[in-house]
Every structure is written in C-alpha cells, then in structure tokens.
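To the wet lab folks,

You asked to see what we're planning to order before we commit. Fair enough. Below is the target structure as tokens, and below that is the sequence we designed to fit it. If anything looks off to you, flag it before the synthesis order goes out.
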C-alpha cells in the first residue's frame, strides 16, 4: 500500500499546482449532487465530482466509512464500495471495517488508499460542527471564462 500513498500524494500535489488551488481561491460543494466548484473573484474556474470517503466524529474520535453511513445521499457514494471490496479481497485491515478509532495515521491511510483504488485526482476535507468529512475529487474540468 506504500505505492497507494505515493500515488495519492503526487496526484494531490499535481492537482493543487495544475489548477492553482491555493491562495485566494474560494470553493463551494454539495453532497446532494456530489459537485464541487472553485472560484476566484466570483468566477468559477474549475468543477469536479466528489465522493465521500468517510468522516471523523471529533467528539468520539471515531471514523465511519461512507459506505457504512446510511445518512449520506447516494450521489456522494460514487464507487466507494470498491474500496471495501479491495480490503476484503486483499485481507487489508481498516478498508472493510465500517468504522475504527480515529488516529491521524489511520485516517490518512484510509484517504490515500481509497484515492488510489478509485483513481481520484485529489483529496478534499471539510470540518463542520463535530465532523470532519473526507472526500475524493474526480472529473476535474476547467470552465471557460
């Protein structure tokens, strides 16, 4: 799985660099339609599709895979079930477990391996209230000005 980590890291760096996703960039995302958009000065310049990998309850310090979370809209699940199957088929811990005690290294591993299995272009995270949501980003498209 070391290859998965390296692949996810390099793709993440490439996504940020290629599309200029640092500095004064704003973003908007929706779980209802599994979309994310990035804008600068009020103009959208990039769109993508989101897949929720999972989430961390900050209070309970637990991780829950999106495939085990019945409250998520179907649109944001994408092909996440393939990640669970990959864990089962390769006898790889963490991937087929619905949840686990959240430690930063396990969350990072879950994110990077999921991104590799599903060939994501990058990773995204969002904190709100008591939850850290972790996403994969796919199908990035530059929009015309």
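Sequence we intend to order:
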């Amino acid at each position: 799985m070391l290859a998965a980590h390296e692949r996810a890291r390099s793709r993440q760096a490439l996504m940020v660099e290629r599309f200029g996703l640092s500095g004064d960039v704003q973003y908007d995302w929706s779980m209802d339609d599994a979309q994310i958009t990035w804008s600068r000065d009020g103009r959208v310049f990039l769109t993508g599709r989101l897949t929720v990998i999972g989430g961390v309850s900050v209070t309970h310090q637990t991780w829950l895979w999106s495939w085990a979370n019945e409250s998520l809209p179907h649109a944001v699940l994408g092909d996440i079930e393939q990640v669970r199957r990959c864990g089962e088929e390769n006898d790889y811990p963490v991937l087929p477990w619905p949840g686990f005690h959240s430690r930063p290294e396990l969350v990072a591993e879950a994110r990077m391996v999921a991104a590799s299995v599903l060939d994501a272009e990058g990773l995204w995270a969002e904190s709100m209230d008591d939850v850290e949501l972790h996403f994969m980003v796919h199908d990035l498209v530059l929009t015309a000005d």
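Structural context that might help your review: Helices lie at 2-19, 81-89, 104-117. The chain has a mean pLDDT of 92.

Thanks,
Computational group
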